Amino acid sequence: MNEVPTYDSMILPTLEALHTLGGSGTNKEIYEQVVQLLNIPDDILEISHGNTSQSEVEYRLAWSRTYLKQYGLLENSSRGVWSLVSTPINLNDMDVKEIVRTVQDTYKSTDISPKTVNHITTLETLEEEELSWHQQIHKKLLSLEPSAFERLTQRLLRESGFIQVQVTGKSGDGGIDGVGIARINGFLSFHVLFQCKRYQGSVSASQIRDFRGAMQGRTDKGLFITTGRFTKDAIKEATRDGAPPIDLIDGEQLVQRLKELGLGVKITMIESIEVDLDWFTNI
């Protein structure tokens, strides 16, 4: 595959991925399965979508999920888990053109958007706010000074339950930006060394190896946080058998975590009132 797959070409693979995952999965899990199913090479996966933390593949895959949701085949929770509305599902019965046409025709008959209806203008109206706050945060993260980004990471870890989080940031420290202690259920704890980097592109496997080398003899656990993405080889290297494991947090996960913790993001709940006129009739 030498081109970025289109959103419609990933609709059926998305369904197949969820079926493989047992009927539900996170964005990351679905992405990894679809990449494997379509055998998308690294050079395609590393193509960014504009000036955002998303790759072009991730962006188009988001549209695939949205079409399936609007067609009634998928649903998603507030915690970002997508699931099949019904299982099992027969992929041979699915007509991608019919799915796309039905969803677009639905919005042609509504007043959701005065723009010409197509796969961007119809559904972008529904997710415009979501994409907007993602892009705003990502742009701001990239503009932070390295020391400010380290302090943000420190706050993020503290809010996530880490204790004794310290930013070191010493030059010549092999890329170690800080240390902390992760607590599990208030009983177990282990030391974690972390590295946080403001990257626009992808973190490579060699950078993961360098980080692990700096961890050698100091801890059994590492955490690598970036505003960018990780290559497939970097992800494999992070969990390589026989080597100290390194947890990875990419730009998309970072933004979502900031939202969950309310760090720089305020969520306003809008009250919805529905009048049941039949109730009065039955008094």
Q: Number of DSSP strands?
A: 10
**CATH fold assignment of the largest domain:** Arc Repressor Mutant, subunit A
Shape: globular
Low-pLDDT regions: 112-129
H and E string: HEHHHEEHHHEEEEHEEHEHH
Question: Helices and strands in order, then pairings?
Answer:
Layout: H1 11-20, E1 24-26, H2 27-38, H3 42-45, H4 56-71, E2 74-76, E3 81-84, H5 96-108, H6 121-143, H7 146-159, E4 163-167, E5 178-184, E6 188-197, E7 202-203, H8 205-215, E8 222-226, E9 229-230, H9 232-238, E10 246-249, H10 251-261, H11 277-281
Parallel strand pairs: 6-8, 7-9, 8-10
Antiparallel strand pairs: 1-3, 2-3, 4-5, 5-6
Describe this structure as you would to a colleague.
By secondary structure, the chain is of the alpha/beta class. The protein folds into 2 domains: 8-139, Arc Repressor Mutant, subunit A (Orthogonal Bundle); 145-261, 3-Layer(aba) Sandwich (Trna Endonuclease, Chain: A, domain 1), CATH 3.40.1350.10. It is built from 11 helices and 10 strands. A hairpin with a 4-residue loop joins strand 2 and strand 3. It is globular.
Task: Describe the structure concisely for a colleague.
By secondary structure, the protein is α/β, with parallel strands linked by helices. The protein has eleven helices and ten strands.
